[in-house]
Fold:
Amino acid sequence: MSRVKLSRGDAVVWLLAAILLVGLYMVFWQADGHGAEAVVLVNGKRWARLDLFQNQDLDVPGPLGHSYIQVRDGQVRFVDSPCPNKLCVHTGWLNQGGEVAICLPNKVSLQILASDPRFDTINF
Amino acid sequence: MSRTIQTARDDYLIAGFAALAITIHIAESALPSPLPGIKPGLANVVTLVVLCRYGWQMAAWVSLLRVLVGSVLIGTFLLPTFFLSAAGALASIVVLGLLFAVSRALPGWAVGPSGYGVAAALAHMSGQFWVAYTVFIPHSGLLTLYPLLMTLAAVLGIVSGLLTRTVLTRLNNAPPGGNPV
Structure:
């Protein structure tokens, strides 16, 4: 194929298209914003409701032992849990509406509440 | 060129190009698609070639005839696919019309196949997405796909623009009175 030559008009169209695409990503892929509250479920039942801007450390009893949850400045995470894989701990800090961290072995889950959650359900 | 062609000749050309576009459209519909709404859009190359050679009016005819007759032949006429495809074709024809008018008005800034290809693909995707979102799946989760689909559309638009250029070059170099196959 011959060398790509763009006329001035083509260049303008491509530029506009690029701007449009960037704008679309900015509008439709923005995060839902920070959640303000989270819930802790143990064994499927609500164990606590957390205000994310009130720093605290929780000690959540589950079937295997104690899971430790930490709330700091609008974020929340599992610090430790008596499970083999530590998936909940490796999930890290949560701050976006709808984000979840789950410790399946200890049946403890943590979810940030959101008016418009980013995900309806998540299957593992 | 397009000035001197009589109406009857235009009709033959429209029919011929539409037949070509319909053939490609049907062949393309048999290809598996990785994502719903994504097609290479090769049939659109025909529309772009007609646009560049004969102007917007004929391109609009070819494009709309393709969607209509193509869907009847595939058997999707008045099914969701048809409305998606018709909305896409209408949107892209409108955008191509605007660009064509701008190119006429400001020859220094005339748009060529590369620009038409990208604009047509983005417009097609938008029209089709708009119908999908408002009519068929009004769920906000769908909007997450929109930027991604538009990116793919832009890439495919560039490809169809380049193809259009190649076809136009060959057509311009072809001996008058047809090209022996």
Notes: The domain at 37-112 of chain A is CATH 2.60.320.10 (mini-chromosome maintenance (MCM) complex, domain 2). The mean pLDDT of chain A is 84.
